[in-house]
Design goal:
mainly alpha, two-stranded antiparallel sheet, about 500 residues
Amino acid sequence: MRTATLKFNQMRNFKNSNGLLSSYGSMLYASMTLGAISLVAGFADYPSGAGGRVSLVLLISGFSLSLFSVFNLKNLKNIELNKPSEVFSFSFYFILIFIAFQSALLLASGVVDTIDVAILESASGITTTAISTLNPETLPTSINLSRSLTQWVGGLGALFYVFVATPISSSGDNPSAAYAPKIFSRKPVKRMQEISILYIGLTICVFAALNVAGMGLFDSFAHSLTTSSTGGFSTKVSSISSFQSGPIEWVLICAMFLGGLNLGIIWWIGRKKLQSIKSNNELRLYLVMFFGGAALFWLKGDFVGPFDYQVRDAFFKVSSLLSTTGYTNTGWEFSSGISAIALLLLATGGMAGSPGSGFGVHRLIELIKYLRRELTRKYNRQAIRKIKVSGEVVNERELDKLQGYTAIFIFIIATGSFLLSLDSESLQIEDSIAVSLSAFVTAGPPITEAGLTNEYGILGNSTLSVLMVVGRLSILPAAYMVLKLSQTIKLNFRGLLPNEGPSDEIL
């Protein structure tokens, strides 16, 4: 009897720790977020009746989801994110529930016909990826607005995850977690306010600049949302190339460059903390990759036309790749050498603490310094050298995680490209790698013409969806959730009780 009682209590505690409360809270926040997006988007076409069924579905679902959230607001105070497991459970369930809800809306509105495409479109939105099978020029204004708002919310959520949720848990694999309180306020609520003000301010500035540059009001608004979030959804099927405007491209170049920056850099500039900026190694490498990449693109690329056009084209492509935004102004046809540079920029992504994804400039610095140290030790076993990034010492545990992260990063891309190749016989291996990488770093359309037009089946769409979600959450939190779900399945189907859930130590 005692054993049975003990097992029951262990099971109860295990279930609580495995995210029942986190999943419930995630459902409330997902309902609240999607409800607000649906209501705003639904009214965009409703007065004119242009949206028809789509507007009606958005309004009804938006009202229902918002009402459900309002009646359950009192339960949000019970949600606490004090441990890594709670932080990652909440983020994981939020993304999955949001994708599920939005997929149902897309199917109900008739925008898509199959569940795999609906999931792909939904995942692409909330993870700030621009992979899509839809033609935005044939979609009603409400859907285009919904897509843009979803990416904007996804970008803000990514910043909250990095600067607020992860530091609270005192863990995570994002390098910004350790020094986030040194940049912004130490109080999480105030930190959220500061981040929101910066993010909204950047969006407003991009909107105003695009409008002044000659883009229409709605297009300016939609692109300001997807640029500040480094999402990449456009209202045009040919993306930015449809506008054929130099001023618009220069505005987006600057905006994408800022989108790839650590948000703390912009905060430091606003507070005139220039010394902190000067000593930031990550910013130096980011600038080297930005300007160096543009120079290589211009020197080695096949750009034609006037000099100013060539320079603009080079900077546009580099900023789109490095920030993982995914806008296109021309085709992605490069020589083999330039393609390698493009893949490197795409894989690296922006700085830690930006809405973008990818391996990260911060991790790249750590990896370079780690390799240099190991090579030094090979010839001088007595050499002991601490690794510092921007004045912060990187401990050995973080270096161990870096090695694992790098190996898993390569493995996931390789696995994704293999599965995509199985789904499409016409896709070359180099194209499948580019597509897999683009999805995993949430960069949008891959840097290959084949990937832009290729339509996948259920296997391909499912693979892309998983890659986007894992890339948005980051590898180690996603690995944690896989372990946790496996233990939950064990409990439900075998009645076995682990002593504890997956250890937070892996994070």
